[in-house]
Specification:
Largest sheet: 6 strands, antiparallel
Distance between the termini: 83 Å
Low-confidence stretches: 1-17, 230-235
Order of helices and strands: EHEEHEHEEHHHEHEEHEE
Helix content: 40-55%
Structural class: alpha+beta
Length: about 400
């Protein structure tokens, strides 16, 4: 009774097999029918390079797996050969004796790469006769091109899988940088207050405000980490509503020591009676911190950074102005790209990219233009909360 040892792969009816496993399985089955051999087997390198039985058609005894020495002897054959021919080496004679095989033919690509080895055997020695040997050689030759194409496709699939894995790692790296950047902002604020604490320790107003700021910033850091670990809620919820002036005042107070260290003053012009924005307070703080810290860094000593607000139809507009060198028109879109910077010798960051992403998630808009007296002006439009 004939048996076929092969893992079949699904394919459309009527289509020729394209993967190496199916090609070899079909080839050994046809070859056994043509030569009436007791066994035809295909050896091929496995994923780890070690030889294995890739496919086999046999009557009774299933084939043994080859060892490295036997496989090496078979792939060195110049073509279809009888294993026990006069002058054959000990490895080939041992291969014939251990496996009950009579003939072998390597299948090689045009560049000489070994793709597989076909072997056949029969107790009456018919597998080594000229007609059977010619069929073995013909099958090996016909297999070379499609098997090489299948191997190339397998490598492309493997490469594609590796590229996707690297893409996931790159995404993880960018996500880690995003979180690190956002955690850095509150830590900078806490560090600044700690540096001022020794000289202001006797000031109860300062220590009270310091405790409130530190607790707020640490809570915000914990919430950022919770978003990473547990994702308890969407970054922007439908019912978010935040008072703009109060949040801006808090952020400016937080950044005053940071700005003072750089000789930069902070000013605000906040329109009275503004509606709330449809933006979570944590998220609005993140956007403001990113914009204002970039503005402070771009502004020279003894100059000012300003933030202003105004009401627009259905929206609130926030405007952050710095006194830096400004941004050339052709670079104003690129400043929102991760790691792009207009500052010489300064590594690009992701603060503005994060700010734009957050604003656009809330169906808002952020853009940059030149200031009237120089510098850069960042304009953020956020949807206002409609009073019910």
């Amino acid at each position: 009774m004939r048996s076929l040892l092969v893992r079949r792969t699904a394919r459309a009816a009527g289509n020729e097999p394209r993967d190496a496993q199916s090609l070899l399985a079909a080839a050994v089955a046809r070859l056994r029918e043509r030569t009436r051999s007791e066994i035809v087997v295909a050896w091929a390198p496995g994923e780890d390079g070690s030889p294995r039985v890739a496919a086999a058609a046999f009557a009774d005894r299933p084939p043994l797996a080859p060892n490295a020495l036997e496989f090496e002897a078979a792939i060195r054959l110049p073509g279809a050969c009888v294993l026990l021919a006069p002058g054959s080496n000990a490895a080939l004679r041992g291969l014939a004796g251990r496996h009950g095989l009579a003939a072998a033919a390597p299948v090689k690509s045009a560049d000489g790469q070994t793709l597989a080895v076909l072997l056949s055997g029969a107790p009456d020695g018919s597998a080594g006769r000229p007609r059977a040997l010619a069929a073995l050689a013909s099958t090996a030759n016909r297999l070379a091109l499609p098997l090489a194409a299948a191997e190339a496709e397998r490598r492309l699939v493997r490469l594609d899988s590796e590229v996707r894995r690297l893409d996931r790692l790159a995404l993880l790296g960018r996500l880690t940088l995003d979180i690190a950047h956002e955690v850095r902002n509150p830590l900078v604020s806490v560090k600044t207050f700690l540096q001022l604490l020794p000289e202001r320790l006797a000031d109860p107003d300062f220590t009270s405000r310091f405790r409130g700021v530190v607790m707020d910033e640490l809570e915000r850091t914990l919430r950022l980490l919770d978003l990473m670990i547990e994702s308890p809620r969407p970054l922007l919820a439908a019912n978010d509503a935040t008072p703009v002036a109060q949040t801006i005042t808090c952020v400016l107070e937080l950044l005053q020591p940071y700005a003072r260290q750089r000789g930069v003053s902070l000013t605000a012009n906040l329109a009275p009676g503004l509606a709330q924005v449809a933006f979570a307070e944590d998220v609005l703080r993140q956007v403001l911190l990113n914009l204002l810290m970039n503005a402070i860094d771009a502004t020279p000593r003894d100059a000012a950074v300003s933030v202003a607000t105004s009401a627009r139809e259905g929206a609130i507009e926030l405007v952050v102005c710095d006194a830096g060198p400004g941004i050339a028109p052709d670079l104003r879109e690129r400043v929102f790209e991760p790691f792009f910077s207009t500052r010489d010798g300064h590594h690009g960051g992701i603060g503005l990219a994060i700010a734009r992403s957050l604003v656009e998630q809330a169906h808002g808009r952020i853009r940059v233009r030149a200031g009237v007296t120089g510098g850069a002006v960042f304009v953020v439009e956020l949807p206002a909360v409609v009073a019910s």
